[in-house]
Design a protein that fits this description.
With about 425 residues, the chain is of the alpha/beta class. Helices cover about 45% and strands about 10% of the residues. Helix 4 (about 110-120) links the parallel strand 2 (about 100) and strand 3 (about 125-130). Bound molecules: manganese (II) ion (MN).
């Protein structure tokens, strides 16, 4: 555990003091403008307060591509240091109060000690992520040709056992969900029988599902391609839905924004899964060409808004106790991961608020009249509203930073950690 440098609350207070008067004025003016549209700014702010996004433990380290990773200074070297970085992000943005762990990347010996440490840092644990997409040093069987759907039973058994260990680890940390993504698939036509591979996958998942505690959920993450470049066992939301339906109520689909073909209508997928009670969770990121894992909203912010618009619609309908688990799943290759996560957390807050501003009653009327242009304009009006005063005011009221990125740069956090964490290296992977 490294020495515990933290950002001083006094620094946050003095930085905020420079900005508070303007913020209050901006918030008041926005409140007036929204009131003219029949929207109560306080009720929007209250909705935003309930919106929380998890940070994956691997997200605070520099990510990378298949080709290279260029580590930054002061990177966290273990789960405790990752928790420290997550804590700083939470301190400044106030909307990231949980951490999503990954085994075996997060090596834990004392679970009770780790849970206590996180609690002191103001954090709880979200979904556990298993890893059967790469071989570990001490394992008996290789996942080169798959894991849960592997042709050989001993390999499948090993992958099942790992997922059960992840559940047990998560229980000790207070998690309530397991997220499974498998890289299983094939690179050549004919290499694998599609139907048999899916059957083997379902059989393995059934065994894992049987070990879920009663108050747990199982999230099935799908991905179109890579590393299997011809066919992937769980390539799309359809396969994910079939598997989740077969397994039972505790199994749900997880949508990762980057795991689709370019131009896929992801908001439609979100609407479908929410409609039938199978949208379990979300991994936020953005992409330009494929699974780029770029920062949320950095490429296609309107698509992100349209996704949140569907989430708002499902929330309003409150079907099936709609409460998906949100997480950021980004690969920070050229930025300070903390700065990227701060910026993305603010982007997600902003987009959530913009979607909450959609006049759903007017939208319903426009849809009833087949008034395409008006319906589109209702969405655009919400999307083009500058809601920054709402997100900033909420952070300010909760003791966070009005301008979290500037504040992080004003602090000595990275400088201190660079001195405290000299052994930074490329040991932990960063991209999922
Ligand atoms: Mn993901």
């Amino acid at each position: 555990m490294s020495p515990e440098y933290e950002i001083d609350a006094e620094l946050i207070g003095s930085e905020n003091a420079h900005r508070a008067a303007n913020l209050e004025r901006d918030y008041g003016e926005l409140g007036d403008r929204l009131a003219r549209r029949g929207i109560d700014i306080e009720s929007i702010t209250k909705q935003l307060k309930a919106f929380q996004v998890a940070i994956p433990s691997w997200g605070v380290g520099t990510g990378g591509t298949r080709f290279a990773r260029f580590p930054g200074p002061g990177e966290p070297r273990n789960i405790y240091e990752k928790i420290e970085d997550c804590s700083v992000i939470r301190q400044l943005v106030c909307s990231t109060s949980t951490v999503s762990t990954h085994f075996p990347w997060d090596s834990v010996e004392d679970y009770a000690g780790l849970a206590k440490f996180a609690q002191i840092k103001g954090l709880a644990f979200d979904a556990v992520n298993s890893n059967t997409f790469q071989d570990q040093q001490d394992q008996s069987h290789s996942y080169k040709f798959g894991s849960l759907s592997h042709i050989a039973k001993p390999v499948r058994d090993q992958a099942i056992a790992h997922n059960i260990e992840c559940i047990e680890a998560g229980q000790k940390l207070g998690s309530h969900a397991l997220t499974i993504w498998v890289a299983d698939g094939s690179n050549f036509p004919g290499q694998q029988n599609f139907r048999d591979a899916f059957d083997r996958y379902l059989d393995s998942m059934t065994q894992i599902y049987a070990r879920l505690p009663h108050d747990w959920q199982l999230f099935i993450e799908h991905k179109l391609f890579e590393p299997a470049f011809y066919a992937t066992v769980i390539a799309d939301w359809g396969s994910s839905y079939l598997a989740a339906t077969q397994l039972g109520d505790k199994a749900k689909c997880l949508v990762d924004l980057g795991h689709h073909a370019p131009n896929t209508n992801i908001e439609l997928i979100v609407a479908r899964l929410a409609h039938f009670g199978k949208l379990g969770g979300f991994h936020f990121n953005d992409s330009k060409y494929g699974d780029d894992d770029l920062d949320s909203g950095s490429i296609n912010p309107y698509q992100l808004f349209l996704v949140f618009n569907e989430l708002a619609d499902a929330t309003e309908r409150a079907e099936h106790g709609f409460a998906p688990a949100y997480m950021m799943d980004q690969s920070h290759n050229v930025t300070d991961p903390i700065e990227s996560l701060i910026t993305s957390a603010v982007t997600l807050q902003r987009t959530m608020v913009q979607a909450a501003l959609v006049d759903r009653s007017a939208l319903g009327d426009a849809q009833a009249d087949n008034d395409a242009i008006l319906a589109s304009q209702i969405l655009q009006q919400a999307y083009t509203t500058d809601v920054a005063p709402i997100t900033a005011k909420l952070r300010f009221d909760q003791g966070g930073a009005i301008d979290p990125l500037k504040l992080f740069r004003r602090s000595d956090y990275r400088k201190q950690k660079t001195a405290d964490r000299p052994e930074s290296g490329g040991k932990t992977a960063g991209i999922v």
